[in-house]
Amino acid sequence: MSGDGKRGTSPPRPSSTLQIKGKKRHIVVDTTGLLMHAIVHAADLQDRDGGAMLMATMFGLYPFLLKLYADGGYQGAGFQAAMRTIMAQVNVEIVKRSDHAKGFTVLPKRWVVERTFAWLNRCRRLAKDWECLNRKARAFLLLASVRLMLRRLARTTA
Fold this sequence. Notes:
Layout: H1 16-19, E1 23-29, E2 35-42, H2 47-57, E3 67-70, H3 77-86, E4 91-94, H4 110-121, H5 124-127, H6 134-157
Parallel strand pairs: 3-4
Antiparallel strand pairs: 1-2
Helix pairs in contact: 2-3
């Protein structure tokens, strides 16, 4: 209890949103939108660096992977050089938005990833950033993806 007798004069506390560190999710999906690989890292890392890190952790898992579609955040000589070093057989195509388009437009091939993010964010645990550790955030991302795959499998077999 404060000794000055005044109520409501406690020192200002920092906002709780300032204490939460941001996260970014990078995912690789197949053509149907099912998750193949994912990483979660701090938000202070650029997309192209995170994409190179994602592909480096995927090294050797999918030798049949020949084409990779990415959005404009992954363009640049650094990402292209990292891709040539990590997976030389993969052809990276950057899906860009048209300069003439106004408002929201569906981009070819990229909507598959956006749809997967929408499916995954339907899980309450992923809708907000509840996890403190990146490995736990990735674990819940993978669990949500398993849930999605199981529901799709149960729907086709029933």
